[in-house]
Write a structure and sequence with these properties.
464 residues, eight-stranded parallel sheet, nine-stranded mixed sheet, 31% helix, alpha/beta
């Protein structure tokens, strides 16, 4: 790294994090980090500030970036349990300093009006910075002339569904992808084969197969891969990059890897639930089997293991959470019909520590390379891929979104150790060797030695 990025001397900065080990997507090295106002001012040795934090024995990393969350989101009869304050507060406790949530339009609502309404909902509550994906559903195909205005208003990505009521036909996908391409934005896709899923659900229910056990057996992994390959092919023909959400299985990884091998601008993400859990959890009795219902579903252990390998190798590019929790009572409403269980799990607070444990502690191989890969998939690549300028890196001029991570602060994940509101966690009982202890957002310490210092509404909408 160039010497001018590492000034020395006694210039008093607002804040200096001293004696830590900096971990970036490229390197691991000892240095101090100095902050002036809201940005990183310098990196080097013997820096001094009006306030100094001793990070000896700890990792200093860029704040985590979670590009796929659903806070305060109406879905069916329910609203996801974490609102914009409690969800972003939990994220900050876990070392995440930026999220991207979603906008959906009503049939008679313009995209810009829907965007403004969602921003107004978040404005007084978000404790960390946030962006928004604009969803294009079937009723929005007639509004594609509004895509340019939404892009100019700061939405750099558009969500396309191949499932649920928001599902687009292949022809509608083509038209949406063309509109997104024309404004230089990024399509992000939920890829599953909805016709097959609904047919299999109907079959299972007609045969009296109603328990959560049948949830993954209605959403076959090969058909998730088929849908992924189909939308990649359409995007390639249109000539646009594409990002595939929540990859759950080896078959889908193979489609993405094949596209990358052809030089196509395709990226994919997975989530902690697919990296830690398997479909066996759906066989737990009563509501315990309903709690982990999400889509795509959890898969067998072989798929879980393949996802870790894909993440380490670069076949998958990043880890998001798809954080969309519901309470036990809400999950229990679908116990007599698995297709009615509200889908989604809470992961927004645990992501950084879970991925650290898997890639660094249990990954084997070169620890330094694993540390850099951890930061890359949790912060740097998510920020870069989703257009979050100034986020995801420890460099002068970037936002001072900084996390101090203690690699020996062992803790057991439980509803009591987390700050999410669902009252349960799919990772209950997992012992993690390492956690975020201090979180800084744009130069402001919002979690100080695991104590909350932030305020609702301090987070800003990030134009992308």
């Amino acid at each position: 790294m160039s010497e001018h990025l590492f000034p020395t001397g006694s210039t008093p900065y607002d804040l200096v994090i001293k004696n830590g080990t900096l971990v970036t997507a490229e390197a691991v090295f000892p240095a101090d980090v100095a902050v002036s106002g809201e940005t990183i001012a310098a990196m080097g040795r013997d820096l001094h500030g009006r306030r100094e934090i001793d990070a000896a024995g700890k990792y200093v990393i860029p704040g985590g970036v979670d590009v796929h969350v659903h806070l305060q989101m109406p879905i069916g009869r329910f609203v996801s349990t974490d609102d914009f304050y409690h969800g972003t507060r939990a994220a900050a406790f876990g070392g995440t300093t930026t999220i991207i949530d979603f906008v959906e339009t009503a049939p008679d609502q313009s995209m810009l009006d829907a965007l403004a309404a969602r921003q107004a909902l978040a404005a007084g509550k978000a404790a960390i910075d946030y962006g928004l994906h604009m969803t294009i559903g079937p009723s929005d195909i007639a509004k594609l002339d509004q895509v340019a205005g939404v892009r100019a208003a700061g939405c750099g990505s558009f969500k396309l569904y191949m499932a649920y009521g928001l599902r687009l036909t292949d022809g509608e996908l083509l038209r949406a992808l063309e509109a997104i391409r024309d404004v230089g934005a990024l399509p992000v896709v939920h890829a599953e084969n909805w016709d097959v899923i609904t047919t299999l659900i109907d079959r299972h229910l007609a045969a009296g197969r109603t328990t959560p056990h049948w949830h993954p057996r209605s959403r076959p992994a090969p058909l998730e891969a088929e849908a992924t390959g189909r939308v990649i092919d359409i995007a390639a023909w249109v000539g646009t990059p594409i990002h595939i959400f929540h990859v759950s299985c080896a078959a889908t990884v193979e489609r993405i890897a094949a596209a990358k091998a052809q030089g196509l601008p395709v990226t994919g993400e997975t989530c902690p639930q697919y990296l830690y859990l398997t479909q066996d959890v759906y066989d737990r009795p009563g509501v315990e089997g309903a709690l982990p219902v999400c889509a795509p579903p959890l898969r067998p252990a072989a798929d879980r293991d393949a996802l870790w390998g894909a993440l380490a190798s670069g076949s998958l590019d990043l880890v998001s959470t798809d954080h969309c929790p519901f309470t036990r009572a809400e999950k229990a409403t679908g116990l007599d019909d698995f297709s009615q269980i509200p889908g989604g799990v809470p992961s927004i607070e645990s992501r950084l520590a879970l991925v650290y444990d898997g890639l660094v502690n249990r990954g084997g191989g070169n620890r330094t390379a694993a540390l850099s890969r951890w930061v890359d998939v949790c912060a740097t690549t998510p920020a870069q891929r989703l257009g979050l300028g100034g986020k995801g890196r420890l460099l002068p001029g970037y936002d001072a979104d900084i996390v101090i991570f203690d690699p020996v602060a062992d803790y057991v994940v439980s509803p009591e150790s987390l700050h999410e509101k669902a009252g349960w966690t799919p990772y209950d009982g997992i012992e993690l060797p390492g956690r975020a202890v201090t979180t800084i957002s744009r130069g402001e310490i919002i979690v100080d030695q695991e104590k909350w210092q932030g305020t609702p509404g301090r987070g800003r909408f990030v134009m992308r």
